[in-house]
Amino acid sequence: MVAVVLPVVLIHGLVGPLGDTRAWDRLAPHEVIAPDLLGYGEHADTRTPIDIAAQVAHVRDLLGERRVHLVGHSVGGVIATAYAHRYADSVASLVNVEGNFTLADAFWSGQLAQQPSAEVEASLARDREDLAGWLRRAELPVTPEWIAVADTVLRFQPATTMHAMARSVVSFTGAPAWEPMLRDVFAAVPVDLVAGGRSRAGWHVPPWALAAARSYAEIPETGHMMMFEDPELFGTAVARLLDGDSPPAT
Predict the structure, then answer these.
(1) Under a CB-based contact definition with an 8 Å cutoff, are residues 205 and 193 in contact?
(2) Residue 197: helix, strand or coil by DSSP?
(3) Could you tell me which residues come within 8 angstroms of residue 91 by beta carbon, excluding any fewer than 6 positions away?
(4) What is the dihedral of CA 219, 225, 227, 229, to 10 degrees?
(5) Helix axis angle, 75-86 to 159-173, nearest 10°
(6) Rounded to the nearest 10 degrees, how much is the dihedral formed by the CA atoms of 50, 56, 59, 64?
(7) Which of 19, 75, 167, 247 is the 20 to 30 Å CA partner of 54?
């Protein structure tokens, strides 16, 4: 019997698209679908109110009832989890790449959520004008390649989108229903966890989630933006998870 090769859907986070095409080239023969969420990229001028629920509905509208693998990074991990909870029958597996488990994981969203919209707008404008400064604050190298990455990431969405999503993810993951939703998803679909070697200590994965995960992979010498830091290694790691060729979580 020939195994069915399902599409892989990449759900990006609070800012920027999800990674480097060099990473996703490693996912062949899977079809790679990387939708721009509401308020991002080609949908930056949407008039639809933006929150986690709206993003789940947006992804469903794009995919229909197709059965897929989901890869969610950071805030995208929350969206992917919410999607898997709502449409478990359409999700073959979920790869959670340093997705938010607790409010401690949403530290930047928490800061943005408390700021007035004008302050978020001004802060984003300053970052776009000082890409090197943004990289230094993110503890990333200031090189021509990284300057280009920072420019892409920061211009992918307006400040209004960042503000709306920051408020939504704080509200969503701070609600009492969030942990039961997480547990339901881990029980319903295979979940793989991926962390950067440098950023793992700041990822608040609860012990029960690590125990329930199908596998855990760590990308050495990378941080939260691991898919840009070492795209080939990151893509290879995700491909191995999709093929079930990874050691179990411990």
Answers:
(1) yes
(2) coil
(3) 67, 68, 69, 70, 83, 84, 189
(4) -80
(5) 60
(6) -140
(7) 19
Rounded-to-integer distance, Cα 132 and Cα 128, Å: 9
Q: How far apart are the first and last CA of the chain?
A: 32
How many Å apart are CA 73 and CA 232, to the nearest integer? 17
Distance, CA of 229 to CA of 222 (rounded, Å): 6
What is the tens place of the pLDDT at every residue in 4-57?
A: 789 999 999 999 998 788 999 999 999 999 999 999 999 999 999 999 999 999
For the chain, what are the domain ranges? Answer: 8-242
- Neighbouring-strand partners of residue 79: none
Q: Which among 98, 100, 103, 99 is positioned nearest to 113, based on CA atoms?
A: 103
- Rounded Cα distance between 186 and 178, Å, is 13
Residue type, 142: V
Q: What kind and span of H or E run contains 49?
A: none
Report domain 8-242's class: alpha beta
The span from the CA of 41 to the CA of 241, in Å, is: 28
3-state secondary structure of 35: coil
Model-wide pTM > 0.85: yes
Q: Render pLDDT for 192-236 as a digit per residue (tens, 0 to 9).
A: 999 999 999 999 999 999 999 999 999 999 999 999 999 999 999
The dihedral built from the CA positions of residue 207, 209, 214 and 215, taken in this order, carries a sign that is negative
Retrieve residue 104's tokens: 């401690």
Q: How far is CA 190 from the centre of its chain?
A: 17
Opening angle at CA 175, ends 200 and 210, nearest 5:
30
